[in-house]
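Summary of Year 1 activities. Much of the first year was spent building the evaluation harness for sequence design. The harness presents a backbone, in tokenized form, and records the residue chosen at every position. We chose the following record to illustrate the format because it has been used consistently in internal testing since the harness was completed.
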């Protein structure tokens, strides 16, 4: 079935420029709304991930070769879409020596040239803890540096078996200490975590210098991913938001359909 209106225009531009979005690859429930608003979270470095996280709908396996023209095409598409805030993320590329950091840097450079008025948000993988890779990205001054923790410490072995909780926190703290980009993170609820564990994670994020956080309901992308353990009530999402604000987060976005890049521009503009 084809798409019409703004949704169809965005889908067409992505197809013409041979670009991926995490909206489609991860089966985000908000992709129709975001496409209709002329917004998209671009997915660079292919659509196949070297990791196999239990929650994620992105295909896992052997990635394709790096497309060195991707940054240029992405920037051109962003200009055609008239974007004022651009979100760029990637699959995890543990096969690359820098984890794909140079690809993020390249995209930022092209975006600054094509859409200088736009703010840029990068949602990075953990780069296997490489501070050099992180600095490759930060040296190009993205407006927001986002790295999602995804879940609480206890659930890392089952939900993110190839990631390390402390390593991700260290990456966020180094980005905050660098003080050139706003630092953001996101988590999913409903994977079996307790309320106290979520609050502990939020406190760990604040202690690491994170100032923006998103909390959304985990929704199983397909039968291949881990089942939903609990559907979080609206009142509990509100309680998480209140707790995070009390901890000192400058902006908190909580709700069943909240995702890391959902209404990202709105969060950035209201960050102070």
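For this record, the design step produced the sequence shown next.
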């Amino acid at each position: 079935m084809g798409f019409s209106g703004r949704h169809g225009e965005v889908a067409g531009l992505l197809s013409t420029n041979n670009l991926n979005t995490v909206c489609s690859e991860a089966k985000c429930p908000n992709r129709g709304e975001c496409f209709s608003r002329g917004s998209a979270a671009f997915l660079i470095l292919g659509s196949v991930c070297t990791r196999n996280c239990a929650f994620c709908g992105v295909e896992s396996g052997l990635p394709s070769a790096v497309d060195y023209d991707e940054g240029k095409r992405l920037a051109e598409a962003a200009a055609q879409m008239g974007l004022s805030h651009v979100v760029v993320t990637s699959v995890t590329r543990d096969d690359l020596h820098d984890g794909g950091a140079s690809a993020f840097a390249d995209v930022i450079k092209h975006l600054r040239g094509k859409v200088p008025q736009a703010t840029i948000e990068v949602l990075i993988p953990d780069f296997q803890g490489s501070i050099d890779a992180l600095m490759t990205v930060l040296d190009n001054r993205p407006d927001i540096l986002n790295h999602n923790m995804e879940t609480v410490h206890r659930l890392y072995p089952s939900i993110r078996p190839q990631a390390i909780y402390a390593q991700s926190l260290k990456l966020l703290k180094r980005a905050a200490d660098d003080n050139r980009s706003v630092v953001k993170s996101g988590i999913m609820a409903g994977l079996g975590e307790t309320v106290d564990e979520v609050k502990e994670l939020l406190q760990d994020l604040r202690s690491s210098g994170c100032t923006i956080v998103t909390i959304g309901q985990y929704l199983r992308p397909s039968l291949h991913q881990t089942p939903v353990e609990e559907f979080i009530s609206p009142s509990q999402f509100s309680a998480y938001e209140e707790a995070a604000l009390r901890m000192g987060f400058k902006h908190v976005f909580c709700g069943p359909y909240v995702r890391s890049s959902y209404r990202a521009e709105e969060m950035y503009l209201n960050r102070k």
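The domain at 5-269 is CATH 3.20.20.70 (TIM Barrel). Quantitative recovery figures across the full test set are reported in Table 2.
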